[in-house]
Design brief:
Mean pLDDT is 90; it is low at 3-10. The protein has helices at 6-10, 14-19, 39-45, 93-112, 172-178, 184-187, 190-212, 219-229; strands at residues 30-33, 53-56, 77-85, 117-119, 123-126, 129-141, 146-157, 236-240, 244-252, 258-262, 267-270, 276-278. Helix 4 (93-112) packs antiparallel against helix 7 and helix 4 crosses helix 8. It is globular. The protein is of the alpha+beta class. The termini are far apart. Strand 10 (258-262) and strand 11 form a beta hairpin. The structure holds biotin (BTN). Residues 38-40, 59, 62-65, 68, 70, 72, 79-81, 122-123, 133-135, 153-155 line the site of biotin (BTN).
C-alpha cells in the first residue's frame, strides 16, 4: 500500500523530496510508504523506472550487508533505496559504496552541519557509534557477466535509537540534542529529513556521473574525501574474516580496498567482500 498521505503524520512526502532534487536520473519517480518489507527488495521485485526512489518509515524485513537484518523501526529512522541502470565495469563495483558514503558525508554537512565518520566500507558513524548503513546490490544481465542495475539502499537513524542498541548506535536527534549551537526544533524538523534524502540523491548522482565518465574520472578525489572520514586510519583494528587478527589500518587504495599492517609488519590488502573490521 502506497501512502502518499503519510506526509500528514510524518511530514515526509514524495513532493518534498522531489522539490529539492537537482538530478537528471534519480527521483524520476519517488514513492513513500509508511511500512514495507524492504525498500531495496521492493525495487528488486517490481518493474521500476530507472532512477526510481522508494522511501519507507518502517521496514518489516530491512536487510543489511552479508545477509544480516537491519532494524528499521517506525519513527526511529529513514530508510530509502534507489535503482539505477548502469553499465559499470565489474572492477568498479566495489567503489559504488564508497561513492554513496561520500554523498552521505557531504549531505550531513550541508543539511545538518554534522561531520560524520565512515567505518569501511559501508557504515556511517558518529562518535564511535553507528548512525546508518549502506547496502549496494546489483542485478546482472543473465547471459553475460555484466551489471545491468544498481540498487542502493540507505538506512539512517533519525529518532531515538532502540534501547537494545543504544550502546552501539546513535541518531541524528541524539547528535543534535547534544550540540549546543543548534536550534534543535528547527534542525530536527521532518523537512530536513526530506532534504537529507534529496541531498544524498543529488550528491550521489553527481559523484556517480563524474566517477564513471572516463574522460574526467573524479574517483581519486572521492577516495581522498572518503579517506578523510575513515576514523580508524592509523589505529589498531580487528580483522574478521576466515581468520580473526589484530592489525593497523594504514591506507585505502584507488580501488577502495583497505591496506592494513599485521603484527609481522606485512602489508595486506583487504577487499570489503571478504572481511569486516572491528575497532
Ligand atoms: C548495513 O548496515 O549493513 C546496511 C544497512 C542498509 C539498510 C538500508 S535501509 C533501506 C534499504 N532497505 C533495506 O532493506 N536495506 C537498506
Amino acid at each position: 500500500m502506497q501512502q502518499e498521505d503519510v506526509k500528514q503524520t510524518y511530514e515526509i512526502s514524495a513532493k518534498s523530496v522531489k522539490d529539492n532534487l537537482r538530478t537528471k536520473i534519480l527521483g524520476s519517480e519517488v514513492k513513500v510508504f509508511d511500512t514495507i518489507n524492504s525498500t531495496s527488495t521492493y525495487l528488486k521485485e517490481n518493474d521500476c523506472k530507472n532512477g526510481e526512489v522508494v522511501v519507507a518509515l518502517h521496514q518489516s524485513a530491512g536487510r543489511g550487508r552479508k545477509g544480516r537484518s537491519f532494524l528499521s523501526n517506525s519513527n526511529r529512522g529513514v530508510y530509502f533505496s534507489f535503482i539505477l541502470n548502469t553499465n559499470i565495469d565489474f572492477e568498479k563495483l566495489s567503489l559504488v559504496t564508497i561513492w554513496v558514503a561520500v554523498a552521505v558525508v557531504r549531505s550531513f554537512k550541508s543539511v545538518y552541519n554534522i561531520e560524520v565518520d565512515i567505518k569501511w566500507v559501508n557504515d556511517i558513524f558518529y562518535n564511535n557509534k553507528k548512525l546508518g548503513g549502506i547496502l549496494t546490490e546489483t542485478i546482472l544481465l543473465s547471459k553475460e557477466q555484466k551489471v545491468d542495475k544498481l540498487i542502493i539502499g540507505i538506512g539512517l537513524n533519525t529518532g531515538k535509537v532502540a534501547d537494545e542498541i543504544s550502546d552501539i548506535a546513535i541518531s541524528i536527534e541524539e547528535i543534535l540534542n547534544k550540540s549546543e549551537n543548534t536550534n534543535n526544533e528547527n534542525k530536527i524538523s521532518q523537512n530536513l529529513r526530506n532534504n537529507l534524502i534529496s541531498e544524498i540523491l543529488n550528491n550521489f548522482e553527481e559523484i556517480y556521473l563524474s566517477c564513471t565518465d572516463t574522460s574526467r574520472s573524479e574517483n581519486p578525489k572521492i577516495i581522498n574525501e572518503y579517506k578523510k572520514q575513515l576514523f580508524f586510519l592509523n589505529k589498531e583494528v580487528t580483522v574478521i574474516g576466515q581468520e580473526t587478527f589484530k592489525a593497523k589500518a594504514i591506507d585505502l587504495n584507488e580501488k577502495g580496498e583497505l591496506i592494513i599492517k599485521n603484527k609481522q609488519d606485512e602489508l595486506i590488502t583487504l577487499n570489503s567482500g571478504e572481511i569486516s573490521i572491528k575497532l
